[in-house]
Amino acid sequence: MHEQLQRLRDDAERVVDPDMWSYLNRGSGDQRTVTEAHDAWDRYRLRPRVLRDVSHVSTELPLFGGVWRTPIGIAPTAFHAVLHPEGEVATATGAAAAGAPMVLSSRSTRRIEDVAAAVDGPWWFQVYLMRERAITAALIERAAAAGATAMVLTADTPYVGHRARTPALARPLPLGDDQALINVRDHFPEGVEDYWELIDQRADLSLGDIAWVADVCELPVIVKGVLRGDEALACIDAGADAIWVSNHGGRQLDRAISTAAALPDVVTAVGDSVPVIVDGGVRDGFDALTALALGASAVMLGRPVMWALAAEGADGVAGILDELTGELRHAMGLAGAACLGDLDPSLVSGR
Ligand SMILES: Cc1cc2nc3c(=O)[nH]c(=O)nc-3n(C[C@H](O)[C@H](O)[C@H](O)COP(=O)(O)O)c2cc1C
After folding, report:
1. In the chain, what is the straight-line distance between the N-terminal and C-terminal CA atoms, in Å?
2. Cα-atom radius of gyration of the chain, to the nearest Å?
3. Contact 189/130 with Cβ under 8 angstroms?
4. Is 280 in the pocket of ligand 1 (CB under 6 A)?
5. Which of 56, 137, 193, 262 could be a cystine partner for 227, CB 3.0 to 4.6 Å?
6. Could you tell me the distance, in angstroms and rounded to a whole number, from the CA of residue 311 to the centre of ligand 1?
7. pLDDT for 287
8. Of the candidate ranges 28-32, 124-128, 204-208, 236-240, the one whose mean pLDDT is the lowest
9. Which segments of the protein form a coiled coil according to its record (predicted)?
10. Binding site, annotated residues
11. Euclidean distance between CA atoms 212 and 218, whole angstroms
C-alpha cells in the first residue's frame, strides 16, 4: 500500500465512528475475497521496455466523450456524510481538483445536483435497481439532467452480502433519514410507510435491465460487477457500452475470484469491442499500472477515497489521487510507456 494511503487510513480510523469503520472496511463471509484483493495485484510482475522516449509521460484518459488527467478514479461508495460533513460534495471537489473520473453512488447523502456542480466536468452515476422502479428511473433522469455522461448499473448486488456488524442499508449508521434519503424521498409514492423496503435492491434484475436503463436516459451503460468473460459478452449483447470488473470490494459473494485474476479473461473475451474498467484492492500506482497493462481503460478506488475523505476532506481525496497518479506516471516511465496507449499485456508477467 502507498505510504500516504496507509497514513490516511490510520488517521481515518481515529476519527470515524466504529460502526461506520466496520461498515467501510469489512468484506462478506470469511473475508477471503476482500483479504486477497490487493495481494492478487501484487503477484504480477512487470516486464519493462527500454530505450523508449519517456521524457514526457501522459496519464490522460479519453473515455465516453470526457477527458481526464488520470485513469485512476473514484468508484461509487455509499453514505459519505458519515465520513465528512460535506459528504459527496467534498469527494467531487477532490475528484475535480485531481482531474479524475468520479462515479456518484445511488446511496449519495448529498443532492445529486449539488454533487454535479462540484465535479465541474464529466461524471457518471451508479444505479441500483431499487424495488420501486419509478424511484430508480427518477434518479437516473435527475442524474442525466444534472450532467452525468454515463450510467453504471451495479449487477452484483441482488442481495446485500452478509457482513458481520454491518447494515444492509443506512439504519444503524450515524446517519439521519434527512441525509440517507436525501435523493429518494421526493419520489416516494403517497402514504408509504416502509420506504426502506422500496429502495432496497431488486433481486430480479436481469440482462434486459441494461436496455431499460439506456431507455430511461439515452446514455452509455456500464455494467459493474462482472468477473467472467462469457458474462461480459452476454452484457455486451444485451446493450452494455462498457464492462466494469468488480467483486464489490469483497462485500458480496465471498470466495469470488479477485479482480486481478478475472481481468485478463474479461479483456480477452471483450477484445476491442467496449472499454473495460476495474476496481478492487488497488492501493498504489503499481497496482494501477498492472491493471492498465492487462487491458483496463480505467482503475477505480473504493475504500482509499473514503479513508482520504474522512481524514482530510476534499484535499485528502485530491491528494491521494495525485499521489497514486504520480506513482503510476513514474512507473510508466520506468516501464518504457509514454502514454496509456503504450501499455499492453506483454508488460505483465505471471499471476
Ligand atoms: C463502504 C462501501 C460502500 C460501497 N457502496 C457502493 C455503492 O453504493 N454502489 C456500488 O456500486 N458499489 C459500492 N461499493 C463497491 C465499490 O464501488 C467498489 O466496487 C469497491 O469498493 C472497490 O474495492 P476497494 O474498496 O478495494 O477499492 C461500496 C464499497 C464500500 C467499501
Report:
1. 19
2. 19
3. no
4. yes
5. 262
6. 18
7. 98
8. 28-32
9. none
10. 23, 76-78, 105, 126, 128, 154, 163, 224, 246, 248, 251, 279-283, 302-303
11. 10
Q: Dmax of the chain from CA atoms?
A: 70
Does the pLDDT of residue 247 top 90, yes or no? yes
B/e letters for 290-304, b = 16+ CB within 10 Å, e = fewer, are: bbbbbbbbbbbbbbb
pLDDT at 190: 87
Give the residue among 142, 217, 216 at the shortest CA–CA distance from 186: 142
Burial of 49 (C-beta count, 10 Å sphere; 0-12/13-18/19+): middle
224 φ/ψ angles, rounded to the nearest 5 degrees: -105, 130
Ligand 1 nearest atom to the CA of residue 107, by list position:
8
Contact yes or no for 22/16 (Cβ under 8 A): no
Kindly report the backbone phi and psi dihedral angles of residue 228, in degrees, each rounded to the nearest multiple of 5, phi listed first: -135, 145
Instruction: Name the residue at shortest CA distance from atom 29 of ligand 1.
Output: 77
- At 193-211, the pLDDT tens digits run 788 889 988 999 999 999 9
Order of strands, sheet of 150-154, starting from the edge strand that comes earlier in the sequence:
72-74, 298-301, 276-279, 242-245, 221-226, 150-154, 124-127, 103-104
- Residue 252 Cβ inside 6 Å of ligand 1? The answer reads no
Question: Cell numbers of 53, please?
Answer: 522516449
| Cα 191 to middle of ligand 1, angstroms | 32
Note the pLDDT of residue 351: 53
- Pocket-testing residue among 34, 83, 248, ligand 1, by greatest number of atoms within 8 A of Cβ: 248
Spatial distance between the Cα atoms of 20 and 79, rounded to a whole number of angstroms: 9
Alpha carbons within 13 A on the beta-carbon side of 261: 12
Most ligand 1 atoms within 8 A of CB, residue of 243, 251, 320 to mutate: 251
Q: Is the CB of 248 under 6 A from ligand 1?
A: yes
Domains and CATH numbers, the chain: 3-340 (3.20.20.70)
Inter-residue contact 141 to 198 (CB < 8 Å): no
